[in-house]
Amino acid sequence: MNSTVSQSEVERKGLQILLEEPFRLFFPLGVFGGLCGVWPWVAYHLGWADSYSAYGHGLLQIQAFEMAFAVGFLMTVLPRFLETDGARPWELVVGWALCAAGMVALVVGAWRLGEGLFLCLALHLSLFGLRRLHSRGDDPPPFFAFLPAGLGSAIFGSCLILCPQVAFPRLGELLVEQGILLAFVLAVGSHLGPRLLYGHRGFPETTTPAAHRRLGLLGGVAVALLTSFVLESGWHAATGQVLRAAIVSAYLFGVLRVDRTPTNPWIHLHLLRGSLISLCLGLWLPPLFPQHALAALHLSFVGGFGLMTIIVATRVVTGHCDAERLWVGNHWPVSLPALLIALAVPVRLAADIAPLYYFQILAVAGSLWLAGLVLWGLYFVPLLRPSRVTPD
Question: In this structure, which long-range contacts are made by residues 374-377, counting pairs with CB atoms below 8 Å and at least 24 apart in sequence?
Answer without folding.
Answer: 374/35, 375/333, 375/336, 375/337, 375/340, 376/31, 376/310, 376/313, 376/314, 376/333, 376/337, 377/28, 377/31
